[in-house]
Every structure is written in structure tokens, then in C-alpha cells.
Amino acid sequence: MGYRQGNERIGGRVPMGQVLSRIESLRSQLSKSEKKVAAIVLAQPNVIVQLSMAQIAEKAGVSEPTVLRFCRSLNLGGYQDLKMRLARELAQGANLYAHQVVSPEASFQMAPQLFDRVLSGLLRVRNALNVQQIQAVVDCLRQAERVFLVGLGEAAHLAQEGQMRWLQRGMNAVAVVDAQDQSRLSGWLKPGDAVLMLSTAKENTHLVRCLQAWQQQGVSLAAIGVDGSDLAECCPIYLKFVLEAGEGALFPSFSRLVLAILLDLVQFGLGVNPDLGRDQEGEPD
After folding, report:
1. E-strand spans in the chain?
2. pLDDT tens across 43-100, in order?
3. Which residues are CB-neighbours of 71 under 8 A, at least 6 positions away?
């Protein structure tokens, strides 16, 4: 069914566990005001389940009747129906890894749920991306003489992979993935350098402490990490991505995948053979 007229609803009844995918698929058919509600729900479903209709209306910058029309456009009974279905869908995702796999057949049966969850998460990350933040990171690195890629834990491997790729493309990049080396990095930095921090955690006490020391060296600082991270509060350039319930601790591969994609986006922004803003003519072979 196409775009509704008046209060006509779009499509059939929403199956349990498919509210987010339905919103994404029907997004282009919603009114301008309803799209604002859709954007909030897709970006923060775990927050929405705790809000009243008045609160989500204020958050989206629309009226309460608009929120109700949004729910009816999805063929839902109302806002409480939306919250109930969202809560169940989030719980299904969080419980996906809570069940013991007893056979290869059971594991295979879980595959569609896992892929659907990851794809839905990637759509939310994409819709919440800030192009200006991506450009700010690209500009920061392009102007640097040297780039230090810093990461710990699961982000360390991505920092090392980024160094290898960027060196192959002519960039002066160094991965620093040891905590002690990161603490000593201040002694290696000089004005004109840039530090790019990678993280999938919300608490980064060590990196925050290092960042405060690096700032004294007159270098450019940027980070790619999860929304709500302590790094976001102190790093001048921060490219954030949104993780919802179950996508971090219960889906460890998901956060690494998102971080890898964003690192690729930054690399694409720098160009195929970037020289970080310096003229290569006259440089020794």
C-alpha cells in the first residue's frame, strides 16, 4: 500500500519483533513531522520505551497528535502499543545470546535473528551519523604530518589494521596499542601531529588521562567512539556512533564492525593516495 490519505494506515499489522524494520522501510512514506518521530525512535529505541508520549513529542520537536499519527501510520494501536512492541523487540535481541546452543541445527536457526539484528543496528548507526563530524576528522588528519592511531582491547586490532592500510597509501601513520606506550606518547609528539583514538567503550579512563597530556603538546586530537563516551566530553573532534541495548556486550562483533566501517569512511574521505596535506614533489624516494 502506498502513502496513506488522512488517517489511513500504511501496510498490514506489524509482526512482533519487526517494529524497527517496519519504521525504516516506511520512513519515506511518512509526513515530514512523522519522520522526526521516526528518527528519534530508530536512533534511541531503548530510551523511547521509558518516555511518555509528551516526552517523545518534546524530544522530536512535534506535537503529541503527531506522535499518535506516527503510531497509526505503522498500523499500531497507539503509543503504548509502540512502546510494548519496542520493549519486546529489544528484549529479543538481548536474549539472543542468553540461550545455550545445543546443536548445529539450533545455531543455524539463530542465524536469521542475528543477521536481522545486525542489519537493523547498522541502519540506525547510518541514520544517526553526522556528516560534519566525519568531515572534521578527515580535515584533522589531512592537515597532519604524522597520524598516531591509538586503541586498546578490541580497538587495538583496528588501529594496527589502519596503520597498515594507510602506510600502503602513502600516509605517515603509526599504531600505538600498548597502554604504557600510549602513556609515553607525549614525549614523541610534536606540533603538526594528530592522534586518532578508536574505542567501542563508554568508559575510557586511561585514554582520557592520556588525551589530557597530549593536549599539552599542541597536537590535533580526534576520536571515533560510541555515543555517550567519556572521550566525547573531552576530545575536540569526536565522531560518534549509537549502540542500542544488546549491541555492545552481547554483540561484541557489531561494535567492531561499526568502528571498522567508520574508519573506512575516514580513509575514503582522505582519498586514495593522500599525503595529509603535504606536497610530495621533491620528497626523496
Report:
1. 146-151, 173-176, 193-198, 220-226, 237-241
2. 777 778 878 899 899 989 999 999 999 999 988 989 999 988 888 877 665 444 444 4
3. 77, 78, 79, 81, 82
CA distance 25 to 103: 34
Separation between Cα atoms, residue 282 and residue 285, nearest integer Å: 9
What one-letter code names the amino acid at 135? Q
Q: Give 253 or 38, the one with higher predicted confidence.
A: 38
> pLDDT per residue over 95-131, tens digit each?
444 444 445 555 566 677 777 777 888 888 888 889 9
Give the separation between CA 135 and CA 262, rounded to whole angstroms: 12
Q: Is 12 exposed, middle or buried (0-12, 13-18, 19+ CB in 10 A)?
A: exposed
Supply the Cα-derived Rg of the chain in whole angstroms.
Answer: 22
- Does the domain at 19-121 match CATH 3.30.70.1400? Answer given as no
Question: Which string of DSSP letters, residue by residue, matches 42-85?
Answer: HH-HHHHTTS-HHHHHHHHTS-HHHHHHHHHHTT-S-HHHHHHH
Burial label for 283, CB within 10 Å (0-12, 13-18, 19+), is exposed
| Coil, helix or strand at residue 176 | strand
Cell numbers found for residue 254? 557489531
CATH T-level fold of 129-270: Rossmann fold (3.40.50)
Contact 179, 197 (CB under 8 A): no
Q: Where are the domains of the chain?
A: 19-121, 129-270
Q: What is the DSSP string of 90-128?
A: HHHHHHTTTSPP-SHHHHHHHHHHHHHHHHHHHHHHHHH
pTM score: 0.59
